[in-house]
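Thread amino acids onto this structure.
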């Protein structure tokens, strides 16, 4: 079904490294959302799950786990990716996406 197809091409990865890093480490991936808490990051990624996992393994993470997305999360990230009808909305959409890709630090 279409929902199952979305759930297999859109997924969450929890990943950590033993060195400092930011979202630029994942520039070759279709990352829809990046959040970092301490040394652990959560990525929402679109693509072939097996290939993405294989490619992420080449970066030598100390922790990596593929987590399921809820139907609500799938819907939210798919809606964010739909182009807006007007250019002003497209700019706003782009800014929101850029903001979502920035690492967040807890103080």
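Threaded sequence (107 positions):
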């Amino acid at each position: 079904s279409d929902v199952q197809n979305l759930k297999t091409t859109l997924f969450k990865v929890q990943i950590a490294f033993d060195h400092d890093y930011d979202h630029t480490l994942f520039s070759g991936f279709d990352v829809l959302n990046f959040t970092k808490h301490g040394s652990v990051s959560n990525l929402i990624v679109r693509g072939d799950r097996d290939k993405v996992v294989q490619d992420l393994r080449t970066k030598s993470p100390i922790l990596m786990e593929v987590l399921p997305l809820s139907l609500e999360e799938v819907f939210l990230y798919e809606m964010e990716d739909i182009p807006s009808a007007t250019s002003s909305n497209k700019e706003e959409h782009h800014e929101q996406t850029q903001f979502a890709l920035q690492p967040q630090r807890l103080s």
